[in-house]
Amino acid sequence: MSAQEFNLEVTPILPEALKRLDELANNLWYSWNIQARQLFEQLNEELWIRVGHNPKLFLRNIDQRRLDSAVTDQSFLDAYKQVLASYDAYYHAKERRNGGKQLAEDDLIAYFCAEYGFHESLPIYSGGLGILAGDHCKTASDLRLPFVAVGLFYHQGYFSQRIDAQGNQIASYNENVPQHLPISLVVDEAKQAIYIDIKIAETQVLAQVWKIQVGHIDLYLLDTNVPQNNDDDRKITHKLYDSGKDIRIKQEIVLGIGGVRLLRRLGIAPTVWHINEGHAAFLILERARELITQGQSFETAIEAVAANTVFTTHTPVPAGHDHFSPEEVKNYLGAFYHHDLRISEEQFMALGSLPNDSPDFNMTTLAVQGSRHRNGVSRIHGDVSSKICAKFWPEIAPKENPIRHVTNGVHVPSMLAREWTNFFDESLGVEWRDHKCDVDFWQAIENIPDQQFWNIRQTVKSRMLAKVCDSLTAQHLPYQISETHLERLLKYIDPKNPNILTIGFARRFATYKRASLLLREIDRLGTIINDTQRPVVFIFAGKAHPADGPGQDLLREIYNKSCLPEFMGKILVVQGYDLGLSRRLVSGVDVWLNNPVYPEEASGTSGMKVALNAGLNLSVLDGWWPESYDGENGWAIKASPHHDNHHLRDDEDARSLYEVLQDEVIPLYYDRDKDGYSEGWVKKAKHSMATILPRFNTQRMLNDYLSDFYLPASRQGRRLNSDNYAKARELADWKANLRAKWSGVEARPLSAPQIQMTSGESINIQVAVRLNELQPTDVAVELLLSHKVYHPEVLVPTQEDLQNIWQNNKMETVSYRFVPEHPLHDSGEYLYNLTLKPDLSGGLSYRIRVFPYDEVLVEAHEMGMMKWV
Ligand SMILES: *Cc1c(COP(=O)(O)O)cnc(C)c1O
Questions:
Q1: Which residue from 366, 154, 140 is spatially nearest to 270, judged by alpha carbons?
Q2: Which is nearest to 777 in space by CA: 826, 849, 828, 850?
Q3: CA of 171 to the centre of ligand 1 (A)
Q4: What is the CA(377)–ligand 1 centre distance, in A?
Q5: Could you tell me the CATH number of the domain that includes residue 770?
Q6: What is the main EC category here (predicted)?
Q7: Would residue 10 count as lying in a domain?
Q8: Whole-number percent of the chain with pLDDT over 70
Q9: Are residues 611 and 634 in contact, defined by beta-carbon separation less than 8 angstroms?
Q10: What is the residue range of 123's domain?
Q11: Are 308 and 716 in contact (CB under 8 A)?
């Protein structure tokens, strides 16, 4: 008979001298301070790995004797004091930095996102979006911005991944135990949990609130798993990106509507609201409800809310935008829009669905209509988003419509390997942290002696290889793999011999990222990989969403190919991709491979992480890469133009990939001199680090958000909201009037066009506009002057001319405004006059247009209306 086991947990007590370890474990500052994490690791390295680098869990499980002995361990105590000194220094410096100084004293930015990735110890993220949100918060803390973040607390977070012996992804969900996480329940003065009340359909759903400290800033997470809710509603915040549509809409209601109520409940009064991806767009409805309850009209409320709302879209494919059927929306929000917003079903549906569009309620549509500050996340993605959103401003060319871009970045302290951090501290001084965006400062990298640069890289790479060896061993152990087989598998990633070219590919296994492109011509790949003089190892990692069958097929395909004799040990598939594994891979691999379908990678950030750790990017020119690639700081694959034929496109892109590998990457890596490294490689790696680190970091990104979005949003919000929303009301009325009259507006040239003049001269141009009862100042009449692309009679077009014609957006254009003069009594039109003194010369052409104008508009073409003469 076997004995029964009883559980007993004995909580270790922190000795007085080490009391503040607890404080460190409860502030995510540890996620970007390497010394803080090392402190825990130093106490017990094995336990540190076993608890998944989770400081709180670590402190609950450490042996009391180890703690007691640490008190007399001088080197540990020194390290402890040093970490606390940096923590206190970080904490006590509260002055705003960079662009944050221009914010008003009472400004506050509220940031809403469905996922946050700070560190592997807090698994409430799935991929790039979450990590970007985490980095955004960390940087807001670094810059001491007035900033608060809102999200959801998922009890099971995103899944953990194992890969079985057939390459199947096995998803398991671990319970997120609050006591093991750096979070605390938000309570009121009587120490009772506070609850946020959200009506979903006919049910009153309650959410409790968790608070997380991210350095200087707070992140609040809503959690419906409370006994007062019924079983279904308790599960709303169960999983991140649950595939059930029902759950998704409820989650988004809790996040958007509940999130606003939560901030109000805590007395927090944001002046700027940032919706990071459409999931949180319902916040617009709740803010509108507040104003309607105060007596404002629906139209005024939307103007007032939109004035200080910033929306960032991350998805370049319309199908990727969240949308819900009219029935679902009616079911869950019917009572809300009838009773709270006091609007009709048609009015409500129009917020999320445009005429002639799908009848579904689309979260991007709501977000675009409920914000006046909108952006994509790279230059290309900004353009793509302008095209996707062209329907909102039907008479405006996409390149002029009000969607802009802020290119993503990464949080350097979180992603820079400790070896590089230490090296920068020693060689550049600790103040390198204050120069993160200073391109000139980072020129210093070019002066690092080659040998030293190479040695650091190799050290970091060895550490990565050791981690991969450990992971693969653990991964294959359950499948009773033989010792010999394991050796075969690990043969080329020996941490003691980091001299084999190692190429990494790790990211979500979404199909557009084309993880298996490399395997398209198996024989060719075999030749490349198995050159005995110049071997190559590929390391793959990544999770496919549990509902994404094709993504899991990709994983299986790669896994099965990796088991073929010719690829054994050369193509490795590592399970359990998370932030911890990501940090190691991006800091250690020589080359990072990125081959998405153009233009479907909105930005991508993992390549940035690689570059700042002196690895090199080999990437399709998509997302952030075209903004960074200068011909010398990595390699580019030009996307093939076969957009419609996927087979041809993939064939062609794969061929380009093989060519770059064979002709450039591999020869350069193995071009070793007597010191054992390739001078050309080191040169490229230095250049990559020096050009990418100071530009693609989140400090630059936050400063862009500040100057282009947060500051204008704060100003516009104040303007429209002052005097009991007087300006918002005026603007809403003005817009309604314009919409009613616009179809009757017409313009025609009055004067016969002059076709020849001399530089320095001016000419008069007159336009008559039928205003259809609008005021003369309600519209702007504008002349656009540009170089005639070419005169076929005189000049032969250059390649560049042709490209300009093709892209139609590179022409230098100068605009001039007409002045309203007087009514034309015989025709009922209004006369506008322009004295044009051209700023250009040569063969020119001009066009004249009329569009609604009011100086209070944030964007010139906000109304989406335009008439051409
Ligand atoms: C950086 C990072 C990403 C983002 O990957 P991209 O493919 O570059 O967008 C995703 N997951 C993890 C764990 C990361 O660290």
A1: 140
A2: 850
A3: 19
A4: 14
A5: 2.60.40
A6: transferase
A7: no
A8: 97
A9: yes
A10: 106-162+169-408+706-721
A11: yes
pLDDT of residue 811: 62
Q: Which amino acid is at 757?
A: M
Give the Cβ contact number of residue 769 at 10 Å: 23
Whether residue 754 sits in one domain with residue 611: no
Which pLDDT value is given to residue 796? Answer: 55
Please count the structural domains in the chain: 4
Indicate the residue among 92, 121, 150 that finishes a domain.
Answer: 92
Given this model, what pLDDT does residue 797 score? 54
Round the CA-based radius of gyration of the chain to a whole number and report it.
30
Could you tell me if 392 and 401 are in contact, meaning their C-beta atoms sit under 8 angstroms apart? yes
The least confident of 46-50, 369-373, 788-792, 824-828 is: 788-792
Q: Does one domain contain both 681 and 548?
A: yes
Residue 803 has what pLDDT?
58
- Tell me the pLDDT tens digit for each residue of 771-829: 999 999 999 999 999 887 655 444 555 666 555 554 554 567 899 999 999 999 888 89
In this structure, are 683 and 717 located in the same domain?
no
List ligand 1's pocket residues with C-beta within 6 A: 127-128, 131, 507, 577-579, 582, 604-606, 609
Q: Is the pLDDT reported for residue 333 higher than 70?
A: yes
* Residue 591 placed within a domain: yes
Least confident range from 167-181, 483-497, 804-818: namely 804-818
Q: Which helix (H) or strand (E) holds 529?
A: helix 522-529
The answer to whether 621 and 629 have CB atoms below 8 angstroms apart is yes
Verify that 450 and 557 share a domain, yes or no: yes
Find how far residue 466's CA is from the centre of its chain.
Answer: 30
Worst-scoring range by mean pLDDT, 408-422, 593-607, 671-685, 834-848? Answer: 834-848
Tokens of 594: 């990125």
Nearest CA, atom 11, ligand 1: 127
pLDDT reading at 843 higher than 60: yes
Q: Is residue 98 part of a domain?
A: no
- What's the CA-to-centroid distance between 117 and ligand 1, angstroms? 10
Q: Compute, in angstroms, the gap from residue 593 CA to the centroid of ligand 1.
A: 13
Q: Are 300 and 725 in contact (CB under 8 A)?
A: yes
**Is the model's pTM score more than 0.90?**
yes
Question: Does residue 122 carry a pLDDT above 50?
Answer: yes
- Is the model's pLDDT at 1 over the cut of 80? no
Which of 831, 803, 809 lies closest to 819 in space, CA to CA?
A: 831
pLDDT of residue 794: 47
Task: Please give the structure tokens belonging to residue 326.
Answer: 């009219």
Q: Which of 508, 574, 584, 601 to mutate to test the pocket of ligand 1 (most atoms within 8 A of CB)?
A: 508
Distance 293 CA to ligand 1 centre (A): 42
Cα angle: 213, vertex 218, 222; to 5 degrees: 100
Ligand 1 pocket, mutate which of 593, 605, 628 (most atoms under 8 A from CB) = 605
Q: 194-244, pLDDT tens digit by residue?
A: 999 999 999 999 999 999 999 999 999 999 999 999 999 999 999 998 888
* Measured distance CA(836)–CA(818) in Å, rounded: 9
* 390 and 341 housed in the same domain: yes
- What's the pLDDT tens digit per position in 242-261? 888 899 999 999 999 999 99
Ligand 1, closest atom to CA 609? 1
**Same domain, residue pair 781 and 863:** yes
Closest CA to 353 of 377, 329, 332, 333: 329
The verdict on 666 and 749 lying in the same domain is no
Mean pLDDT, the chain, whole residue set: 94
Same domain, yes or no, for 526 and 447? yes
Between CA 683 and CA 634 the distance in angstroms is: 11
pLDDT at 826: 82
- Residue 338: exposure state from Cβ atoms within 10 A (0-12, 13-18, ≥19): middle
Q: Give the contacts of 42 (CB within 8 A, at least 6 positions apart).
A: 76, 79
d(C-alpha 841, C-alpha 820), whole Å: 27
**What distance in angstroms lies between residue 405's CA and the mean position of ligand 1's atoms?**
20
Whether residue 258 is contained in a domain is answered as yes
CATH code where residue 400 lies: 3.40.50.2000
